[in-house]
Amino acid sequence: MISIGNFSISKEVFNLLILLAVALAVHQIAIRVFIPLFTKMIQKTRIVWDNILLKRHVIRRTFHLLPATVLSVGLPFVLENRESGLYAALFKVLMLYYTITGLLIYIALLDTVQDLFELSELSKKFSLRGVLQALKIVGVLSVIVLVISQLAGKSPVYYLSGLGAFTAILLLVFKDSILGLVAGVQLSSMDLVRNGDWIEMPKHGADGDVIDISLTTVRIQNWDKTISSIPAYDLVSSSFKNWRGMSDSGGRRIKRSINIDLNTIGFLNSDDIGRLKKIKLLRLYLDEKLRDIEDSNTKQYNPDELQFSGNGRRLTNVGTFRAYCAAYLKHNPQIHQDLTFLIRQLAPGEHGLPIEIYVFTNITRWAVYEDIQSDIFDHLLAILPEFNLRAFQALSGLDIVRAAGVFTQKHDVFNRVAQR
After folding, report:
1. pLDDT of 344-400, one tens digit each?
2. For residue 103, is it within any domain?
3. pLDDT digit string (tens) for 34-48?
4. For the chain, what is the domain count?
5. Exposure string (b/e) for 335-371, b if CB count within 10 Å is 16 or more?
6. What residues make up the domain containing 54?
7. What is the per-residue DSSP string for 245-293?
8. CA-to-CA distance for 115 and 49, rounded, in angstroms?
9. Is residue 158 in some structural domain?
10. Dihedrals φ, ψ of 308, to 5°?
11. How much is the pTM?
């Protein structure tokens, strides 16, 4: 026994208190001396990964193991009777402390891996967040089993073997979480969605950029700045549109038609050809086409037969307009010349003859793309009269009123003439 004033304590308890004081002193030295020192050293370096370790508190949590290490090393020397209940209780507390602190360090290291991965170019093609969250769940479940086994004094294998009995219940209760877990891994491994992808999913009213991919949900910032959260398993089980291919190709598709009024389609005469030759983009086309037509007609028809428009080949205004569209877009620096380039005529219908422009811009940004597309069709619609063509437009109420007014005037003139 050791006497201190009016108090007397056993030698083991006194030694234990000294050991605790030493462990506390080591903890304070680590927190107040070593961690600030490491922080200053790390901030002076140009290395990135050590800053992330500091940010994620990996170093701080690791230093928390020092007092526990002091206790675990000194405990056998302080308590000579290792069979005592005090030794067993303290040892069990130390093991629990090691287990929980180890879990915190494990989670911090996974967060560090995530931050480092996001700094690499690979993060633009692959999301690691779902996989790391799955590893965190596995780590937490493992620690729970270890803590329970340590408190109960049984082997962890005993509890792991008993988990099979609860599998059916777990599948029912945590069905959505399990589906989300599997889907999150599939999204990452199959590279279906990445951060920054523009996706459309009308089922959930989502249309915008992916800003976060977690284990169970995918968050999308829509164009109106609202946020949509979609379950990960919905992206695997349902259809959605990902515009990544457009961005990767470097081109964005223009697919739009100009409907030509069928009443304005006809052959070009010599005056029309002479006028259209003044357009620089058409000059080479017209010279080659006229030469080819003349050679073909000379071989098959005599001059008298060519007087009839039904014989021989002739230039049409709509065909020449298609050639102009192609030449105009070939000389447009904002059109991607290496992707599909097509100016085609679709089947005529009740809205006239559609001339479809099917090309790609070399700029994929939405606002710029819309400006390019608008400029192209502004020009093509404005130049239609040069080809004696007119765009089809359905009758409006004003057209009907004007037609009725003309009919009324003619009817009045007819009545006045009849009265005379």
Report:
1. 999 999 999 999 999 999 988 888 999 999 999 999 999 999 999 999 988 767 767
2. yes
3. 888 888 888 888 888
4. 2
5. bbeeeeeebeeeeeeeebbbbbbebbbbbbeeeebee
6. 1-119
7. HHHHHT-EEEEEEEEEPGGG--B--HHHHHHHTTSHHHHHHHHHHHHHH
8. 9
9. no
10. -90, 130
11. 0.56
